[in-house]
Design goal:
Blueprint: E1 4-7, H1 11-22, E2 27-30, H2 39-42, E3 46-47, H3 51-56, E4 60-63, H4 68-76, H5 81-84, E5 90-93, H6 99-110, E6 115-118, E7 121-122, H7 124-130, E8 133-138, H8 141-152, E9 155-162, H9 166-194, H10 199-206, H11 214-225, H12 234-251, H13 256-270, H14 281-288
Parallel strand pairs: 1-2, 1-4, 2-3, 4-5, 5-6, 8-9
Antiparallel strand pairs: 7-8
Length: about 290
């Protein structure tokens, strides 16, 4: 069993690192804030002082950080992975970043005989905790096969979708569809509230028909209560939509619903709701419909 390094111990990453340790992997972690996720210490997870130091002690490095510049920093920055990793190291990037940047990173790492697989995840904090994430994987078949045992400790549905960068492109599609789903459920909930219906009953009834979705089942309650505890941050989804809209612009695709969702999320962030769960899109629909915040 290969030794694994894990970089990025946020809400998702800390749970993912814990699942790797629980699956029997020898895990060493690094986070920009050193005292993050102290619960990992009890699981025997080691700590490194830099990404380069971490890479020197493992065969595989998993990354789960917030954005493209963060990935660039840990891969290629001073004492980053490229500076410390031995030839033959595999990097699995579970962050959600630009497909084009991913292809560029792969080319730079290849000069050091380091392989890269892009493996962005979907499923939110619940999926990370329960190791039921959906993972979209891009990369060379041999690299993806090598990554499989590690990914299997993190997720339930793992799909090799094509060459490097393809995982990020599929994640962009995922985030565009989520934007529409969250907005649709939010609008339906607000319409039901305005109509004076028993909204919990409405949700139960709709759950048996074509309107059923994970968002309806798991996030409608938050929309009804107008309370949005952390699951997947508005700010992170807005970042992801930026990636998707950039890709759409490159390809000549029109995404009006994603553009509207991005506008609402920008407004929510400006109003101090960046860390709310993205179901807070309902906050905007409620406000536009005359409900007090």
């Amino acid at each position: 069993m290969e030794r694994v390094g894990f970089i990025g111990l946020g809400t998702m990453g800390a749970a993912m690192a814990a699942n790797l340790a629980g699956a029997g992997f020898d895990v060493t972690a690094w986070n920009r804030t050193p005292d993050r996720a102290p619960e990992l210490d009890e699981l025997g997870v080691g700590r490194a002082s830099t990404p380069g130091e971490l890479a020197r002690s493992v065969e595989v490095v998993v990354i789960c950080v917030s954005d493209t510049p963060d990935v660039a920093a840990v891969l290629l920055g001073p004492d980053g992975i490229a500076a410390g990793a031995r030839a033959g190291t595999l990097v699995i990037d579970c962050s959600t970043i630009s497909p084009a940047a991913t292809r560029g990173f792969a080319a730079e790492l290849a000069e050091h005989d380091i392989a890269l697989v892009d493996a962005p995840v979907s499923g939110g904090s619940e999926g990370a905790q329960k190791a039921t994430l959906t993972i979209f994987v891009g990369g060379k078949p041999a690299d993806v096969e090598r990554a499989q045992p590690i990914l299997a400790a993190l997720g339930k549905t793992i799909t090799h979708v094509g060459p490097i960068g393809s995982g990020q492109a599929v994640k962009a599609v995922n985030q565009v569809i989520l934007a529409g789903t969250y907005l649709g459920v939010a609008e339906g909930i607000v319409l039901a509230l305005k109509a004076g219906l028993d909204v919990e009953q409405v949700v139960e009834a709709l759950g048996g028909g074509a309107a059923q979705s994970w968002v309806l089942a798991n996030r409608s309650g938050r929309m009804i209560a107008n309370d949005y505890p952390l699951g997947f941050k508005v700010a992170l989804h807005r970042k992801d939509l930026g990636i998707a809209l950039e890709l759409a612009g490159e390809l000549g695709a029109e995404l009006p619903i994603a553009e509207f969702a991005a506008t609402l999320e920008t407004e929510l962030i400006a109003a101090g709701h960046a860390d709310d769960d993205m179901s807070a899109l309902a906050r905007s629909i409620r406000a536009r419909s005359g409900f007090p915040d």
